[in-house]
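hey so i finally got around to running the thing on that chain from the lab meeting. sorry it took forever, my laptop kept dying and i had to restart like 3 times. anyway pasting the input first so we r on the same page abt which one it is
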Amino acid sequence: EGCEFEQHLKDAHYVISQPFYPAYLTKERIGMASNLKAAITAGIGSDHVDLQAAIDHMVDVSEVTYCNSISVSEHVVMMILSLVRNYIPSHEVVKG
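ok and heres what got predicted. didnt touch it at all, straight out
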C-alpha cells in the first residue's frame, strides 16, 4: 500500500490541507478516492490539486482565502522587530 495519507484517502469524503503541509491530490490519488467530494485549502493556492482530475471526478476545490492573514502579518511585524532590535547578531553573541 501507499503512504498513510493514501490509506485514509480511500474512505475520505473531504480533504483539508494547508500550504505548509499540502495534501498533494494527483490524478492517481483522486482516482483512488471514490468518495471524495471536496478538496479544501486552508490558505491561498490550489496548485497541489490536479484541477482537471478534480473536474473529471466532480470534486469541488476551494480555498479559505485570508484565513491566515492575521498570523502572516504578525509574523512580518516580528521579523521587522528582530531586524530593528538587532536580535539575530545579539543572539549569536549570547549563544557563542
